[in-house]
Amino acid sequence: MGRLSLYFRELYRLRDSKTTTINSKELGKLVNVSSPVVRRDLSALGTIGQRGVGYSVDALIERIGQVLGSGKQWEVVLVGVGSLGDALLRYRGFSRLGFKLTAAFDIDPSRIGSTIGGVQVLDANELERVVTAAPPSLAILAVPADNAADVATLLVSLGVSGILNFAPTTLKLPPRIAVVNVDLASELQRLAFAVQSVK
Ligand SMILES: NC(=O)c1ccc[n+]([C@@H]2O[C@H](COP(=O)([O-])OP(=O)(O)OC[C@H]3O[C@@H](n4cnc5c(N)ncnc54)[C@H](O)[C@@H]3O)[C@@H](O)[C@H]2O)c1
After folding, report:
1. What residue ranges does this record give for the DNA-binding region (predicted)?
2. Distance (Å, rounded) from C-alpha 105 to C-alpha 79?
3. C-alpha to C-alpha distance for 43 and 194, rounded to whole angstroms
4. What is 1-68's CATH number, 3.60.15.10, 1.10.10.10, 1.10.8.60, 3.40.50.150?
5. Which of 76, 110, 126, 195 is most buried, judged by most C-beta within 10 A?
């Protein structure tokens, strides 16, 4: 899954630069894996390259997109528009992968009513009403750790089925709910550990 998403990112870049075909060696070079690994990954998706020609960039984007769920449009709400939430709302990279930020919520009156990256920041008190009226599949949680569990539980009760959690806390949610935790501090810790262990 991790590699597919890397291929996908590079293929988008290639398409932007008007490249129409690529072979396994070139694609492997872009993501730092060998060409047999690329061929194995892509043939597992039922994608066959043509000898001497390689793979069609468009066809690969479409196939990998289907597998990664980017072939469809995902509606996403963001809860917590502090420094991180603000930056996420301004990020233009979500839409091309099929993620549409439909609304953002905060409790801070100085944030409520503003529009950031084209998305309106609503009062968190409105969350239940807005999400019930047009349930998104996914939510991004960028609230302080102490508030994350309550917000996550509310989102799940309203039908959200996947949460990207930036709060440094472990959410206890039913197993049917997909949760991906992004903890940048832990990642930095892993990096420091890796640097230390190669010395
Ligand atoms: N800023 C970073 O680089 C960074 C990096 C990694 C992790 N995080 C984590 O992401 C989360 C957000 O970080 P930040 O730096 O943006 O914090 P922040 O304090 O700037 O923003 C948090 C926002 O959440 C809002 N909020 C609090 N309770 C809420 C609720 N119940 N409903 C809706 N909104 C609510 C606050 O009003 C505030 O605007 C934190 O848990 C933090 O630990 C941040």
Report:
1. 6-45
2. 5
3. 32
4. 1.10.10.10
5. 76
State residue 136's pLDDT score.
83
Structure-token pair, residue 58? 């468009």
pLDDT given for residue 71 in this prediction = 66
Domain ranges in the chain? 1-68, 74-185
Residues with CB under 6 A from ligand 1: 79-85, 105-108, 111, 124, 142-145, 147, 151, 166-168, 184
Ligand 1 atom with least separation from CA of 79: 33
pLDDT tens figures, 35-49: 999 999 998 988 777
pLDDT band at 148 (very low <50, low <70, confident <90, very high): very high
Binding residue positions for NAD(+)? 80-85
Q: What residue's CA is closest to ligand 1, atom 18?
A: 82
Protein residue closest via CA to atom 12 of ligand 1: 142
> What length is written for the chain?
199
At the top level of CATH, the class of 74-185 is alpha beta
